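Quick illustration for those who missed Monday's session on complexes.
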Amino acid sequence: MLSLFESSKLAVGLTALAAVANAAHYEVAVGKGNKLTFEPETLTTQLGDTVTYKFFSKFHSIAQSKFDDPCHLSEGGLFSGYVPTESSDVAAPTSFTITVNDTKPLWLYCSTGEHCKAGMVHAINAPTNGTNTFDAYKSAAQKVSTAATPPVGTLPVGGIRKTHIDVGASNGSIIFSPNNITELVGTVLEFSYNPKNHSIVQSSFDKPCQPLESGFAAPFVATKQAPSGVTFEVEVKDEKPIWFYCAQTLGSHCQAGMVGAVNAPTSGNNTFDAYLSAAAKAPTSVQPSFAPLNGTLKVNETIIY
Ligand SMILES: [Cu+2]
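Prediction with copper (II) ion bound:
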């Protein structure tokens, strides 16, 4: 089965990279339509292919078990971390991508509550006959007595957990979306440029609209396309709050509320709302003299800096 990505810009990026010229990319919907399912339930892939899990409906994960121990995270097994989301039909901004490095079957499940026991399981390269089939794995999962759930907050393992953040919007809005994010350490923030001419710069809480020394910074990118295909990626390296803004002075984007936070405290003095109000009163924004800094700039998935 072909994914949406294959026909669009990712394919352009992939063909540009000779080393993975033949790799296919698959997409799997996790919990779409409020159902406890992976769609598709099974995939057949080649070495080097990638699979992106898109999350829907409340709270799911993708975790790896052994065939004969379903619903239990195997030691060192793949784990996406949990992904909370409201919508049953619009994918969460957070996704998880794995690269298939082995031709052996991968047995996977959702580790939330009783989801695995309800049959929320998935497999890559499962044998189609013999004893270790997908159907055998699924029925064993449904008979498990206790599903050992990794606790909430368990960090992702073995894949890339990525959160997409829109920088501006197709209608020209001066906003980051989402702009107040809770994310796990190890997650990659993927900022995606949209129309107007925005930048992405890390600040301190105390000095919104001013660059943080040794923080991340991405250049201005003027575009009329949404998405433009230009992204800037930054990894969440620790649990400290991350504050960021757009440094566009024409229209005072930062002061107008084009700011964002990752892992901001939800109470006390240093909340996202406090940062937003401080930004509204901040002096003229500053763009660092050189960018990109401390992040990766990509065009159509190809690293350019
Ligand atoms: Cu802006």
